[in-house]
Amino acid sequence: MRLLVTGGSGFIGSAFIRLTIKSEPGTEVLNFDSLTYAGNLENLTDVAENSRYHFVKGNVVDPQAVDRTIVEWQPDAIVHFAAESHVDRSIISPQPAVETNFNGTFQLLEAVRKHKISRYLQISTDEVYGSINEPAEADETYPLRPSSAYSASKAAADLLALAYFKTYKLDVIVTRASNNYGPYQFPEKLIPLMISNAIEDQPLPVYGDGTQVRDWLWVDDHCRAIQAVLKKGRSGEIYNIGGSLALPNIDVVEKILTAVGKPNTLIKKVEDRPGHDQRYAITSDKVMTEMGWTPQVEFEQGLMKAVEWYRKNTDWIERVRSGEYRDYYEKNYAHRGTNLAQL
Ligand code: NAD
Ligand code: TYD
Questions:
Q1: What is the C-alpha to C-alpha distance for residues 178 and 245, in angstroms, rounded to an integer?
Q2: CATH number of residue 150's parent domain
Q3: Is residue 269 part of a domain?
């Protein structure tokens, strides 16, 4: 099996590659990644010397680079992770999200069509369903009501991928996961940001009242589900992948402070995110029934593992937060009426 993985130097893509190289001895992986601020070759140090792992620096919006890579690599399947993945950044600047998430997917689908690649996996998100009122949970037929440029660009990309299944009979599958957490997650997202700020006794910026609910999924559980869907998923289908655990943000932040051993006084309520989705909730019955998959890591256990990892890897945090990160941090937090940006 020859896999082409896009965005493999990011958080989930690198976890997927590490898992695949370890658990699938018959699989070779080519990681195609443009190395944006979120892409980090250090995330793949564990497999960098493995003869079944290869890397090409390239941009998914560049049709020539995509075409050349597919001609040379001759993949059996593509797993498309590459994205501008952060809601807050897409609020500050929507253009990169639309360009990479929609146009990047379009370029890949065109290459799949041209080269008749046998399987294409579109890695998507539960955010495409938008905010869901209690007690409903979205299954795969739930209407798409995205709220941010990030989630709208992901929803548009999902629809394009499914249109290529219908029109061109391509072997396309879409997976929609809930919020992932685990090692190597860029410290702009809730859990790694709060852990690293707590470790450094810095304020923990909770948006609004902190009652917004997210479903949390340990990243390796997500990657096992992707592996299963890649092998056994049905063409043209959508599979939700959730952690079956919904928690308000404030509870997550308090659990982090307990795990790190720091006081709740570090919590700082700040101005809310515009268009903030109140609640995400999905049912993963389909992937559980069809693939026999279940999430294995419980949140408390996963959080301890994550805290442990970020404690041990403060040098990694320092490196990824240097340069561009400070600029983003100031843009995102300075106007929220706090002195967080002076970190
Ligand atoms: P990430 O931001 O950590 O990594 C994204 C990777 O894509 C980086 O390595 C980056 O360099 C690469 N990339 C970005 N633009 C590119 C381009 N134009 N060409 C080639 N490479 C490019 O993202 P992540 O959190 O690992 O998310 C991976 C995928 O999973 C995304 O598609 C995201 O929408 C989806 N997803 C994420 C979550 C989550 O909680 N993080 C949940 C559900 C779905
Ligand atoms: P995030 O990790 O950005 O993921 P998403 O927006 O894709 O769900 O945020 C998770 C939740 O945490 C979301 O409700 C926004 C909230 N949040 C904060 O309260 N403060 C923060 O500094 C960040 C980054 C997120």
A1: 10
A2: 3.40.50.720
A3: no
**Residue 206 forms part of a structural domain:** no
pLDDT category, 341, cuts 50, 70, 90?
A: low
Judged by phi (left if over 0) then psi (alpha if -120 to 50, else beta), residue 116 lies in: left
Position 334 scores a pLDDT of 78
**Ligand 2 atom with minimal separation from the 191 CA:** 2
Catalytic residue among 33, 126, 220, 277: 126
The answer to whether the CB of 207 is under 6 A from ligand 2 is yes
Residue matched to tokens 């440029």: 149
Beta strands, E only, 66-203? 77-80, 119-125, 172-177, 179-181
- Say which of 129, 142, 150, 164 is annotated catalytic: 150
Lowest mean pLDDT among 117-131, 254-268, 323-337: 323-337
How is the chain split among helix, strand and coil, in percent rounded to 5? 50, 15, 35
Which residue segment(s) compose the domain that 96 sits in?
Answer: 2-185+218-243+281-297+325-342
Residue 266 in domain: no
Overall number of domains in the chain: 1
Residue 87 near ligand 2, beta carbon < 6 Å: yes
Please name which ligand lies nearest the alpha carbon of 80: 1
Q: Is residue 113 part of a domain?
A: yes
Q: Please, which pLDDT band fits residue 56 given cuts at 50, 70 and 90?
A: very high
Is the CB of 100 inside a 6 Å radius of any atom of ligand 1?
yes
**CA dihedral (201, 207, 213, 216) positive or negative:** negative
Q: Catalytic one among 28, 127, 137, 221?
A: 127
Whole-angstrom distance, CA of residue 148 vs CA of residue 124? 14
- Ligand 2 close to Cβ of residue 97 (< 6 A): no
- pLDDT 10s digits, 315-326: 999 999 887 887
Residue 67 near residue 108 (C-beta atoms within 8 A): no
